[in-house]
What we know:
Layout lengths: L5 E6 L3 H17 L4 E6 L23 H8 L5 E5 L11 E7 L6 E4 L14 E3 L3 H10 L4 E3 L5 H9 L5 E5 H6 L6 E4 L14 E6 L2 H7 L5 H17 L7 E8 L2 E9 L5 E10 L3 H11 L7
Parallel strand pairs: 1-2, 1-3, 6-7, 6-8
Antiparallel strand pairs: 3-10, 4-10, 5-8, 5-9, 11-12, 12-13
Helix pairs in contact: 7-8
Amino acid sequence: MKQKKKWIIGTRGSSLALIQTQIVLEKLKQLYPFCDFEIKTIKTKGDTIWDRPLHQIGGKGLFVKEIEEALIKKEIDMAVHSAKDLPTELERGLVIGAFIEREDPRDAFISEVFESIHELKKGAIIGTSSLRRKAQLLNFNMDFDIKELRGNVDTRIRKLKERRFDAIVLACAGVKRMGFQKEIKQVLPMDIMVPPAGQGAIGIEIRCEEETIEFLKPLNHDRTQKEVDIERTLQARIGGGCHIPLGINASIKDDTLTIYIMLGKENGEILFRKKFTSSIYNIDSVINEIINILPAMEGI
């Protein structure tokens, strides 16, 4: 089969999305210096509605639907996503062709005044648009005042510097990729803040076509794929999307698998929080164990 010479890469137009696409592009150029690549930016629903929380306008899929449509219509050959934005069920005929090596999946505490979350006083105003973060922040201290904060990484940091908030919480990976790592005062440990499935990973979505699958194979980071696959499997089994506070993180070191999981309510009540450690060879049994002991989803 004659290999294709030009590839069109779809992405959102935000600064972070373009930086992540550039990361993928540079790796592709190293692997395939004889190929041409074009970046096509696509506006998604999540990029057009800024006055409401994400969970009120659709949650999962808000930043991918229009890009998936472009893939299906063959307007693009591949799409670069933050893996945490991908719904657990992709559109028919689409697959994740590769994951880039994961950045730190944890959340970052950022403040102009305070060095850590432990220094915040009663009534401290914290900015976040995530139900998952809100639940865990209120569980840490019910006296926090959680305010809605949406926008790109640089927009959120600007609003913090305007002293609209005492602190904000963002994904470490996005902050680092945008070059704002010096703003991070504290990387929040998993026992305070469990991140969402896929956070820190870049996924490349493609049509299920042999040529593209083979083209992307050398790009795939095996450990990242295994970790995110476990997280996405758990997320699919649990359900809830962005409408419930759910944190899932899997990490693999040597042959040891560690899973953190948190299920809560927006008011700060934590229904389930636990750390699981197992052999990497017991993935299925660990997933079944977690599902069997989780509380029922009704009423959450």
